[in-house]
């Protein structure tokens, strides 16, 4: 049993390290699509005191900056937009790839980060973001 646990821990540690490498490769592949949204990302980030790279990274991970979307929706039609907001939070009049939608999703991100920070004030910033 201990061996199984050890393997599980090793696998988890390996997946964590491999995961970051994969995220970096994915983000690099998504850069041409991200450039299209550079100005709105920077404007939203500046207004919300966020790092533009964080918004771009979320777009890359959630939708491959739109590559995986069908008219803004994921395959299950449960999430919408570049940052993949849940169906319940979608404002129907907001286009999935507009600055307004990036702003809406980023505001939700800020609220979520602030909730985690309030619940776990002793955590490092990196841990709060995870």
From TrEMBL:
Documented EC number(s): 3.2.1.17
Record InterPro entries: Glyco_hydro_23, Lysozyme-like_dom_sf
An individual GO BP term: peptidoglycan catabolic process
Catalytic activity field: Hydrolysis of (1->4)-beta-linkages between N-acetylmuramic acid and N-acetyl-D-glucosamine residues in a peptidoglycan and between N-acetyl-D-glucosamine residues in chitodextrins
GO CC, alphabetical: extracellular region
Enzyme class, broadest EC rank: hydrolase
Database matches in Gene3D superfamilies: 1.10.530.10
Molecular functions per Gene Ontology: lysozyme activity
Family designation: Belongs to the glycosyl hydrolase 23 family.
Protein name, entry field: Lysozyme g
């Amino acid at each position: 049993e201990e061996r199984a646990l050890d393997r599980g821990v090793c696998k988890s540690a390996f997946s964590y390290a491999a995961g970051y490498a994969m995220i970096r490769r994915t983000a690099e592949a998504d850069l041409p699509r991200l450039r299209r949204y550079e100005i709105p990302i920077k404007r939203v980030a500046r207004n919300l005191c966020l790092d533009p790279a964080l918004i771009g990274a979320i777009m890359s991970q959630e939708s491959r900056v739109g590559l995986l979307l069908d008219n803004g929706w994921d395959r299950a039609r449960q999430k919408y937009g570049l940052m993949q907001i849940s169906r319940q939070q979608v404002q129907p009049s907001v286009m999935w790839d507009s600055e307004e939608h990036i702003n809406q999703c980023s505001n939700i991100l800020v609220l979520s980060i602030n909730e985690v920070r309030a619940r776990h004030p002793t955590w490092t910033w990196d841990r709060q973001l995870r």
